Amino acid sequence: MTSDTTPPRAPAKWRKVLLQLTGGLIFGGAVGYGAGHFAGDFAAARGLERLPLSVEIAGLVAVIYILIAAIVLVGASSPSLGAKMLNVEDADEVREMQSQFVDSGVAMLLWGIALLALACAVPVGPLAAPAALAIGAIGLLAGLWFAIRSYRAADELMLATNIEAGALTYGLVLVGVGGWAMAAHLGYAPAPAPLDLLTAFYVLVLAATFITAGRRGMLWPR
Questions:
Q1: Which of 2, 13, 60, 194 is deepest in the core (most CB within 10 A)?
Q2: Across the chain, which distance is largest between two alpha carbons, in Å?
Q3: Is the dihedral of CA 99, 101, 103, 105 positive or negative?
């Protein structure tokens, strides 16, 4: 008598990736369209043909941070849903890492709100400088506190990934922002505005995180 030792067929992981990409594109497109429509209406109400490019880019980056935070927090709030939305093995892994997901999501949410508040500051936006400064400073510092909480709860793989991402961020800032400053100093490019610098830091941190995670295979479907 023989027994069938053929392992059970693994579920199609790419189906999960396709679902994540489709959902992300739909959600991101809807949010992007809404943000762009709001920005256009707001510029018209302020008597501007369009918002300054620095403000538009800062607002877009802030929306991306808030969007990512929303996905992480929604996924963390429901392990069954998180197993489909997040790159994890199953719902049990979401439960195990729930506090870490929540801390990371809140950190990104606060950082996104901080940048959005600064983009909405006078003279272009409706927020007075003291209000924008308060929201921006509190958002950055509170987000850092939640990020440190997430860092302390990370396992060895995540700790190594965070260290590598930090080192890569330094290199990207040196080359990207430093190269821009060098070109501006020599008169080959306009000098970056303060909001441009802050937005660049946001973008480079996010880019370094994705590059590091991709190099370690953490972006492949699980």
A1: 60
A2: 84
A3: negative
